[in-house]
Amino acid sequence: MPAIAYLECSRCHARLSADTPQTLCTQCPDQPAGALYVRYDLTHLQGRSAEEVVGNDPTSPWSGMWRYRAVLPDVEPVTLGEGWTPMLRSKRHPGAFLKEEGANPTGSFKARGLALAVTMARHYGLKKLAVPSAGNAAGALAAYAAAADIEAHIFMPRDVPLANYVEAMAYGANVTLVDGVISDCARIVGERKQREGWFDISTLKEPFRVEGKKTMGYELVEQLGWEYPDAVFYPTGGGVGLIGMWKAFEEMEQLGWLKPGKRPRMFAIQSSGCAPVVQAFNDGAAASQMWQNAETAASGLRVPKAYGDYIILDILRASGGMAVAVSDDDIFASLRDWAANEGIFLSPEGAAATAAYDHLLSTGVLDASHRVVLFNTGAGLKYTDVTAAALGLKHPGGA
Ligand SMILES: Cc1ncc(COP(=O)(O)O)c(C=O)c1O
Ligand SMILES: [Zn+2]
Fold it and tell me: How far is the CA of 51 from the centre of ligand 1 (A)?
């Protein structure tokens, strides 16, 4: 595992030390301050193949996302078995692969980012972490904080999927339910954190959630035989996974593991009830506007303004991808379709990706020969209340 060389600002490229916990760039001349990227000196890996560095030893104690420890910080992990999730081949679409992130601990891809963020928090000796969450980050933080004996302070909308509330309570987190959406939760954390002594691990306001989620980029490439797919479909709220995967691609090219110039087209998928990135992309804007009255049953996509919108938009454009909105009706139609015809029970967010894939196939943006990775970012089983309501099902026992 490499030592962190420095943290680099995504806006002004200032270098900050990782010796103490950092949040956002302190050197940016303009606000909002840039998010920070973790940078390592990886020269010792130059000239070594991906297979050799990552290895395939079944007896290695470094399993899951920690198989990429050569490109992760050199600290003792807090782990619950996150990462190395299945890459399933679609039965009906020969070019489509479904990355099943519901197989992670706490049933979502949030486990990767929070495993690393909590790992680093423990390393720095932080005792109280706070997070505004659409739901799944709350569950993941609560689990990893419990594993690391750290306090978790969670702020989430009152109407989160029931599973997110139940898991956070069971893990013993301090849970505050907010009448509003994630941006209202973020405001409360921002107002109280100094007084309460909380370290804020909001999306992109510290560098390690992106760093954990970058393992999805390494992993999808490894699972495709160390080759890029043609496109990646990512259900986008705060965009951490998209940003993390792009960072992984950059690192793999620097290491000589992949040829530059062939990166996948990145597609950010949102719900038409909350589509700030889609609107900014279509307007040719560098950043998004706060989306008013955000409403979608895909709770993870109910993010009215992403802190890293400027990075997401850059990546979509640089990759030749685009931002796509799908309606909640299309989301649940696709969810039923994949459940009944593929045996895969998607989260509403994952079904946004599959619905968008159908849409782009039908409009000719992509065709069946393109190799496409669709992210199911959470397990369908975390949303039984939400999906039951959408499908018009009631509890058969009348409860
Ligand atoms: C299941 C699911 N998918 C997608 C997202 C959006 O993730 P990101 O913030 O990385 O864009 C979330 C966020 O809560 C989520 O829970
Ligand atoms: Zn800066």
Answer: 30
Nearest Cα residue to 117 out of 141, 82, 135: 141
Q: What is the pLDDT of residue 59?
A: 80
Q: Is the pTM of this model over 0.85?
A: yes
Closest-lying ligand 1 atom to the alpha carbon of residue 182: 14
Q: What domains lie within the chain, and their CATH numbers?
A: 4-71 (no CATH), 87-107+210-389 (3.40.50.1100), 110-200 (3.40.50.1100)
168 closest CA partner among 146, 148, 188, 190: 146
Determine whether the shortest distance from the Cβ of 102 to ligand 1 is under 6 A.
no
Question: Taking Cα atoms as reference points, which of 78, 202, 83, 82 lies closest to residue 148?
Answer: 78
Closest residue by CA, ligand 1 atom 14: 300
Q: Is 1 exposed, middle or buried (0-12, 13-18, 19+ CB in 10 A)?
A: middle
Distance CA(247)–CA(21), nearest Å, equals 21
Give, using CA atoms, the residue closest to atom 5 of ligand 1. Answer: 300
Q: What is the CA radius of gyration of the chain?
A: 20
- Taking CB atoms within 8 Å and a gap of at least 24, the contacts of 261-265 are 262/228, 263/228, 263/319, 264/228, 264/229, 264/230, 264/231, 264/232, 264/319, 264/321, 264/373, 265/230, 265/231, 265/232, 265/319, 265/320, 265/321, 265/322
Angle at CA of residue 133, ends 375 and 354, nearest 5°:
20
Identity of the residue numbered 248: A
Amino acid (one-letter) located at 6:
Y
131-162 pLDDT, tens digit per residue, is 999 999 999 999 999 999 999 999 999 999 99
Residue nearest to atom 9 of ligand 1 (CA): 238
Altogether, the residues listed in the chain come to a count of 399
104 lines ligand 1 (CB under 6 A): no
